[in-house]
Amino acid sequence: MVAALVSEAEFIEGIKALGIEEYARQSNMELRSVYARRARLEKKYGPIATPTAAKPATRREVNAPQRFHVDVKDGTVLVGSDSHYWPGQISTAHRAFVFLAKKLKPVAVVKNGDVLDGATISRHMPIGWEKRPSLIEEIEESKARLEEIRSASKGAVHVWTLGNHDARFETRLATVAPEYARVHGVHLRDHFPDWEPAWACWINNNVVIKHRFKAGIHAPHNNTMWAGKTIVTGHLHSLKVMPVTDYNGTRYGVDCGTMADVYGPQFTDYTEDNPRSWRAGFVVLTFRYGRLLWPDVVHVVDADHVEFRGEVYRV
Predict the structure, then answer these.
(1) Segments in 193-298 forming alpha helices (H)
(2) Could you give the percent of the chain with pLDDT greater than 90?
(3) Mean pLDDT (10-residue bins), the chain, 315 residues
(4) Where does residue 9 rank: exposed (0-12), middle (13-18), buried (19+ CB within 10 A)?
């Protein structure tokens, strides 16, 4: 097919049927020439709708529902983030999370991303010959730890919001084997069927729990300023509560910290033994009459103790 010999009607019919990219390929025309001719014809005849070419799967196309809503009038919600579960390592924060799940009997439990570390499917190259656990070892460890939490919080709603490390699982498959899309087992959520997957968990429509938003040392403050709502995130491992008050009242930017040991094997090599302004722990959200009270931080004191609401607990 030679462009100069194709009538306007045939050209329009062709790009409507095939789309711009495929029409250019089949007609041996330069892509920019097809776009240019369509633009000229649109000035003459008006908009010409064409199908969009299918795009390869990317990180943004990891399979997870957008939001999961939970209504809480009175009760607590436990939110733990960045567990990076590692075979053979049960962190102090994890033990405390299970302990408080039994003690507080939460309405909902949210694992706020990076349950899985995904060391062998990381975009970061290994340093030397460091030993990393296999993917199946990480999945089995994560399943065991999540089951401990679920058993300790029977009756609660269990939500798992996707983190960037979790997304490595599907990103890798979507990149190297896109033909497996929608086959059971290729989505990470298939391996954790008792947890509701989502990008974000919304509580009472005014508290948003998601893995990450803004970056940097002031992220919790910037998160709630930009969101206009209380927003609870992880990712940065900083464990802090930043209140913001304006004419609408007070809301909070909350960082969940990390449920992994700060100097655990997950981080040993790539951090090059640098000091880390990270804190191990998690947060407890308490609601009364549907209103969020000041968020509580559970902070790991040492290998056996955590502090919470003015008390030190051995776990």
Answers:
(1) 219-227
(2) 56
(3) 68 87 82 85 86 47 73 96 93 98 97 85 63 87 95 96 83 74 78 92 96 94 96 96 96 97 85 89 97 97 96 97
(4) exposed
Class of domain 59-314: alpha beta
pTM: 0.77
Task: Give per-residue pLDDT as tens, 210-248.
Answer: 999 999 999 999 999 999 999 999 999 999 999 999 999
| Number of other CB atoms surrounding residue 238 within 10 Å | 17
Residue 203's SS3 state is strand
Q: Are strands 207-210 and 200-203 parallel, antiparallel or unpaired?
A: antiparallel
Residue 125 corresponds to which amino acid?
Answer: M
Half-sphere exposure of 235 (CA within 13 A, CB side): 21
Sign for the pseudo-dihedral over CA of 101, 104, 106, 109: negative
Contact 270, 262 (CB under 8 A): no
Evaluate whether 264 touches 89 at the Cβ level (below 8 Å). yes
Contact 98, 220 (CB under 8 A): no
The domain locations on the chain are 3-45, 59-314
Distance, in Å, from the CA atom of 78 to the CA atom of 69, rounded to the nearest integer, reads: 15
Residues 42, 48 contacting (CB under 8 angstroms): yes
Contacts of 240 (CB under 8 A, 6+ apart): 220, 254, 255, 279, 297
